[in-house]
TrEMBL record:
Belongs to the metallo-dependent hydrolases superfamily. Adenosine and AMP deaminases family. Keywords: Hydrolase, Metal-binding, Zinc. It comes from Agromyces neolithicus. Transmembrane segments: none annotated. This is adenosine deaminase. SUPFAM superfamilies: Metallo-dependent hydrolases (SSF51556).
C-alpha cells in the first residue's frame, strides 16, 4: 500500500481508519495494479509505458483519469489490461491486489474483472479465471500469515458493449464453487442497456447466481430501471444517479423534505445496495448534475433517506485512493463519525454475495472491530 495510515484518523476520537474492519464490494482488478508491478510486467512483455518511474506512472494515471468522462476514464485500462494477458501476470496482479486489501483493513472483498479482456496471449476464459483464483489464494495466504483475517470472491464481469454476455454468465456459473460469487456487466453505460444481455440474466436467474450491474453512473434512471427489471440486480454498481428520482420539496434551517419517485422508492424499500465510489464518481462526472466537489455528492442525502449506501474504491490506481481514504474523504465532507462508518460496513456485509450465515459472521466481526476502536 502506498497509503500512510497516519494520514487517516477520524476527527474527534482519532480512530485509525485503516485499522477498522472494512468490506469492499466494488473494486476492479484492472484498476488496482501497483505501478511498479505494471512497469515490470510491461517490461517482460516488451510493452511501452508512459513513465518508467513508479511514482511518475501513478501520477500519470491520476491525471488521465480526471477527465470528467467515463469513456475517457476507461481508456487508462488499455494499459493495465495489456499486462494482464498471461497466467503469471494475472496471478501476480490478483495476489498483490489481495495483499493491498488486507493492508487496507478489508476483511471481505469482491474483486470484479472481465475475463474476455484477457485473452490476447492465448489464455482461454476458464484459464484466465483459474489464474486469477490462484493469485487470490496466494494473496489470502500472505495476508493470513501476517495475522489478519480476510476472505475474497470473484465477480466475473461481461463487457456490456460486446455480445458475450451469456458465454460469460455460463463461465461464472461454472466457477461458482471455485471462487466466483457473482456476475456483473461493465463498460460504456450510455447506449448499452442491460436488456442487451437479457438472455444472460435469464440464465443467471435460473441458476440463482447473484447479480450486480453498473448502473446510474454514466447513464440515468432508464439504465437503473433496466438493471432492476432486465438484470434482476441485487446491487447497483455506483447507482448515484438514483438521486435523479428524488424531488426536494422544500428546505428549512434544519431539514430537507424529499419525495421519492417509483424507482428510488423501490431501491430504498427493497434495500438494494448502492456501491458508491466517491472519488471515482467525481472523476467520471457521475455527479456532475449536483456539482464538482465531494460535498456535492448525493451520498449524504441518500444515506439520510435510508438507502443502503456502501463505500468503495472502484479503481485504486486511477483514483489514487484506498477504501480508507474514501471513508476519510466522506468524513471530511459530511462530518461522519465512527458510528456512520460502522453503518456503511454493516450495509456492505448485509449485501455481500455470501450465504446468510457468512454475512452474519461478517457483521459480528465488524461490530467487534468497531467496539475495540
Amino acid at each position: 500500500m502506498n497509503t500512510n495510515p497516519t494520514e487517516y484518523r477520524l476527527e474527534g476520537d482519532g480512530a485509525d481508519i485503516q485499522s477498522l474492519p472494512k468490506i469492499s464490494l466494488h473494486d476492479h482488478l484492472d484498476g488496482g495494479l501497483r505501478p511498479q508491478s505494471l512497469i515490470e510486467l510491461a517490461d517482460e512483455l516488451g510493452l511501452e509505458v508512459p513513465a518508467a518511474d513508479a511514482e511518475a506512472l501513478r501520477a500519470w494515471f491520476t491525471e488521465q483519469s480526471n477527465s470528467g468522462s467515463l469513456v475517457e476514464y476507461l481508456k487508462t485500462f488499455d494499459l493495465t489490461t495489456a499486462v494482464m494477458q498471461t497466467r503469471a501476470g494475472l496471478s501476480r496482479v490478483a495476489r498483490e491486489f489481495v495483499q493491498d486489501l488486507g493492508a487496507d483493513g478489508v476483511i471481505y472483498g469482491e474483486i470484479r474483472w472481465a475475463p474476455e479482456q484477457h485473452l490476447t496471449r492465448g489464455l482461454s476464459l476458464d484459464e484466465a479465471v483459474e489464474a486469477v483464483q490462484a493469485g487470490i489464494e496466494q494473496g489470502l495466504d500472505d495476508v493470513q500469515a501476517l495475522g489478519r483475517r480476510i476472505r475474497v470472491g470473484q465477480l466475473v464481469t461481461a463487457m456490456r458493449h460486446n455480445d458475450r454476455g451469456l458465454e460469460i454468465a455460463e463461465l461464472a456459473v461454472r466457477h461458482r464453487e471455485r471462487g466466483v460469487v457473482g456476475f456483473d456487466i461493465a463498460g460504456p453505460e450510455a447506449g448499452f442497456l442491460p436488456a442487451r444481455h437479457r438472455t444472460a440474466f435469464d440464465y443467471l436467474a435460473s441458476q440463482f447466481m447473484p447479480v450486480t450491474i453498473h448502473a446510474g453512473e454514466a447513464d440515468g434512471l432508464e439504465s437503473i430501471r433496466g438493471a432492476l427489471l432486465d438484470g434482476r440486480a441485487l446491487r447497483l454498481g455506483h447507482g448515484v444517479r438514483i438521486a435523479e428520482d428524488l424531488v426536494i420539496e422544500r428546505q428549512d434551517d434544519e431539514n430537507t423534505y424529499v419525495s421519492l419517485g417509483p424507482i428510488a422508492q423501490w431501491v430504498r424499500d427493497r434495500e438494494i445496495a448502492l456501491e458508491t465510489s466517491p472519488s471515482s464518481n467525481l472523476q467520471t462526472g457521475a455527479i456532475a448534475a449536483w456539482g464538482g466537489e465531494l460535498v456535492d455528492h448525493p451520498f449524504d442525502l441518500l444515506y439520510q433517506l435510508g438507502f443502503r449506501v456502501t463505500v468503495n474504491a472502484d479503481n485504486r490506481l486511477q483514483s489514487g485512493t484506498s477504501l480508507t481514504r474514501e471513508l476519510a474523504l466522506l468524513s471530511d465532507a459530511f462530518g461522519y463519525d465512527l458510528d456512520d462508518f460502522e453503518t456503511f460496513q454493516l450495509n456492505a456485509a448485509a449485501s455481500a454475495f455470501l450465504p446468510l450465515d457468512d454475512r452474519e459472521e461478517l457483521a459480528e466481526l465488524i461490530q467487534d472491530g468497531f467496539d475495540e476502536a
